[in-house]
Request: fold
Amino acid sequence: MSQPKTKLLHSVRANLRLRHFSPRTEAAYVDWIRRFVHFHGTVHPSELGARQVGDYLRHLAVERHVAASTQSQARAALLFLYRDVLDQPLEDLGDIPRARGPVRIPVVLTAAEVGAVLERLTGVYRLIGILLYGAAECG
Reply:
């Protein structure tokens, strides 16, 4: 049973190299394809289709809680497999929940926010705050 899988992965690598993908992308795509095959009990991907790809991507988002970029990379690898290696483009993957992107927190305080913080400090802590933020004018 490992013979077809080995041929599949060789074919994936050859197609990626033909299209000048980076070695890191090649390694990542091969890994995602291998995980997909194992997820479906080592059934050859040519025997699977859009529904199984959708099931796997849903599994990544809902059960594994992967990052949005991770799910996108897995999706790209599987779309590449079906479109460029197996020559079986996937029609519709259905309604796949997207993994959530990271919550962004503010990195920089506004001048008003720094001033409000410094106003609440006293003594040596205020001096340290003013020196750290270069905000001698906040005084």
Q: What stands out?
A: Residues 121 and 129 are 8 Å apart (CA to CA). The chain has six helices and no strands.
